[in-house]
Amino acid sequence: MEENFNNQIKEVLNNETLNQLEIISKLKHIISETEFKNYNNRPTKTMANIVSENILKKIANPEYSQIIKTGFNAFDENFAGFTLGELIIIGARPGMGKTQLLINLCLNISKEIPILFFTFDLSSDSLAERFLSCHTGIRINNQTEVNLTQQEKNKILNTEQELSNYKIYLNDDFSHSISALKQECIKQIEEHGIKIIIVDYLQLMGSFNYKRNRETEVSYISRELKKIAKENNVCVIVSSQLNRSVELRPGGAHNPKLSDLRDSGAIEQDADKVIFIYRPEYYGINIGEEGESTSGLIELQIAKNRNGILNNIKLYHDKNFLLINETNYNKLDFDFNPDKLNDIENPF
After folding, report:
1. Would you say residue 30 has pLDDT above 80?
2. Do 73 and 326 form a contact (C-beta atoms < 8 A)?
3. Of the four, 46, 109, 235, 346, which is 20 to 30 A from 88 by CA?
4. How far is CA 104 from the centre of its chain?
């Protein structure tokens, strides 16, 4: 098949009777025909067959389950975690913690589920340092500045075996090309049984097909990511920047909306779930609507859920912004005062 394709291309390029427009037209026709031949047509089935072969099998046999637990109990209970075949968009403005949330999700999931992580914002070394920092609890700047205590050095040196238990594969080497990424996904799915693919982040990707129109280009990339999820039965999680309109919204309301997704409405259309990250503390909002402190609070706002409800989930980050989970770390950080003990012993 590949040899025939190459021969057809050479034949067109070597045909001196064709002008430039005719060459382009014939090349497009060859590519289109080849894509159609390579398309994996799925047979049409009755609804009863689909229910029997797919849905009932998953219910009767847990090993066939399509659900992936995130490790965040509130999310898993309310939204049944992530599902194979889904395209999930995690959107936020810069500084909200998109990459750190993805790292925490990876560490929660990857002991059981193999994950392929494409990083276009950071090098694979920088991302690995963040994973190490999150796993050990040692701040990233301590590692990069070689500002470690002996105890911290020992802790890092002893993590090699522990980290090998996480099935995480990092890649930063595809020039932001959706075509190259797609091929690598197929390869890693076949070789390592990848079930989750993470892309950080969408707006740094490109395509040779639509260089002159960014909205069309992003729409194409979004559709291709959705196809990867559906055709390979994997969960594709993609972080996405939001428009600056979030910052400019009047009245101090900085909660993201679906219309804030940057560059293309196709992102909203293609996604099965859209999850926004919102940190009120970032905008100087220190007290919540019910009078509670917003220190360390991260709200996951589920703005689209094709198969379920919409709601918000509260998570918290530690003081170094390494760990993210349902524990309010700030309530655990307090200074002990001996006078308080006296108050307890002598309440009157």
Report:
1. no
2. yes
3. 46
4. 11
pLDDT of residue 176: 64
pLDDT for the residue 255:
82
Side-chain-side CA neighbours of 139 within 13 Å: the count stands at: 11
Question: Lowest-pLDDT range, 32-46, 166-180, 272-286?
Answer: 32-46
Q: Give yes or no for a contact between 86 and 236, defined as CB atoms under 8 angstroms apart.
A: yes
- Specify the DSSP element, H or E, that contains 116: strand 115-119
Other beta carbons within 10 angstroms of residue 27's beta carbon come to: 14
Contact 262, 214 (CB under 8 A): no
pLDDT grade, residue 61 (50/70/90)?
low
Question: 295 and 281 in contact (C-beta within 8 Å)?
Answer: yes
Ordered DSSP codes for 207-272: -SS-TT-HHHHHHHHHHHHHHHHHHHT-EEEEEEEB-THHHH-GGG-----GGGBSS-THHHHH-S
Residue with tokens 């079930």: 195
- Decide: 225 and 232 in contact? Cβ < 8 Å: no
**What is the reported pLDDT for 18?**
82
CA distance 25 to 170: 39
124: left (phi over 0), alpha (psi -120 to 50) or beta: alpha
Q: Give the residue-averaged pLDDT of 49-73.
A: 70
Contact 297, 284 (CB under 8 A): no
Cα gap 314→111, rounded to integer Å: 24
Q: Compute the distance between CA of residue 122 and CA of residue 126 in angstroms, rounded to an integer.
A: 6
Region 325-339 average pLDDT: 60
C-alpha span between 285 and 246 (Å, rounded): 15
Is 228's pLDDT higher than 90?
A: yes
Between strands 273-278 and 297-305, the pairing is antiparallel
Reported as a single tens digit per residue, the pLDDT across 11-25 is 888 887 888 788 887
* Cα torsion through 267, 268, 273, 279, rounded to 10: 90
Residue 58 pLDDT: 60
